[in-house]
Design a protein that fits this description.
six-stranded antiparallel barrel; about 375 residues; six-stranded mixed beta sheet; about 20% helix
Length: about 375
């Protein structure tokens, strides 16, 4: 099985560090190094670095690039200036989610970078190409040519200065980026993140990423695996495609309709999203806090006190930061109000809980 999986440019570095490797999105990826809790706390309190070279980079350019991206993307890129980034989704006509992604408006005219989820790169590329008829655009999947590091934590800015001397980078605002060149090689530094903390992403050629990773290791930055990436994003109320968004879960159901700009003239899926907002989606994603130390896991039933199932857990953990048993769950809309009592069935027992806000942890960086 492993021989059929891809490897990022940092695979050998992960193995040399003793990382626990496991399949993820078609890649062999590091799940943890020293341990999920240690790595999680490093990001919350100091700084950590993730290999996210498995993510996809799809470039859209041409005379109609802006019009095309606005046609397929739920947010409104017409409001973007060069060097700005936006979060949003690609949707099916029925409002289901193809993927959630970041769109970067490049500094050259009529050019955009779409950063998509690793498991969806080929699907997204094919979907974009299938909807490009009538638009003068070039769609270029360059995912194999780029690596990516995510430096996350309250000390990320200090590391960017101390290790890389990146004075111009630390001046970046949230959801902005710089387009740079070194020795004739293009690289991108952005300031977004997926942990609830301050952070930077560095996109560059694979050999450059290997060099930068080693500099961070030499400086004592904690390497972090996908295990704590999931616990961190979950605490901060951020969705994972396949769990909180999917072909069956729309942005309205996921509580992300603010990223669907219904005042735009059109985008694929707009009518379905508008109808769900007007009528109310049949299911809603909620946060649930348990009054027990039992751990809710994805797939566990959500029930009423009489045992009637009204939903299912999508992600659940014993929160490392908060020391609480919490989860996201997709439930019928009638049971989504804050304060609603619900029960989680864990094996043969049920545990009481309460609907709470999905952002369990308030990010320090805004």
């Amino acid at each position: 099985m492993e021989e059929n999986l891809k490897r990022t440019c940092l695979y050998d570095k992960h193995v040399a560090l003793g990382a626990k490797m496991s399949p993820f999105a078609g890649y062999m990826m590091p799940i943890q190094y020293s341990g999920i809790a240690d790595e999680h706390n490093a990001v919350r309190n100091h700084v950590g670095v993730f290999d996210v070279s498995h993510m996809g980079e799809i470039f859209v350019s041409g005379k109609d690039a802006g019009r095309f991206v606005n046609h397929v993307f739920t947010n409104d890129v017409s409001s973007l200036e060069a060097g700005q980034t936006q979060y949003g989704m690609l949707l099916y006509e029925d409002g289901g989610t193809v993927d959630d992604l970041l769109v970067y408006k490049e500094f050259e005219p009529d050019a955009y970078l779409l950063v998509v989820n690793a498991a969806n790169v080929d699907k997204d590329y094919d979907w974009l190409c299938a909807h490009a008829e009538g638009f003068d655009v070039k769609i270029d999947n360059q995912s194999e040519s780029w690596g990516q590091l995510a430096l996350q934590g309250p000390e990320a800015e200090k590391v960017m200065l101390d290790v890389f001397g990146a004075v111009d980078s630390v001046a970046l605002g949230f959801y902005t980026f710089l387009d740079k060149e070194y020795a004739g090689i293009r690289y991108i530094i952005s300031r977004t993140g997926y942990t609830g903390e301050d952070g930077f992403e560095i996109y560059a050629a694979p050999d450059v990423i290997v060099h930068l990773w080693q500099k961070l290791m030499d400086a004592g930055v904690t390497p972090c695996g996908l295990g704590c990436r999931d616990t961190l994003r979950f605490e901060a109320g951020l969705p994972l495609y396949g769990d909180e968004l999917s072909a069956e879960i729309s942005p309205v159901m996921a509580g992300l309709s603010m990223f669907c700009k219904l005042d735009k003239e059109e985008f694929i899926g707009k009518e379905a999203i508008a109808q769900q907002k007007a009528e109310g989606a049949p299911r809603k994603l909620v946060g649930i806090e348990l009054r027990d130390r039992a751990i809710p896991r994805a797939g566990y039933p959500v029930e009423l006190e009489d045992g009637t199932q009204v939903g299912v857990v999508t992600t659940g953990y014993r929160s490392i930061t908060l020391d609480k048993s919490i989860c996201f769950a997709l439930v019928g809309k009638d049971w989504a109000k804050l304060g609603t009592p619900l029960w989680i069935r864990i094996h043969k027992k049920v545990y009481p809980g309460t609907v709470v806000k999905k952002r369990f942890y308030q990010p320090k960086y805004k």
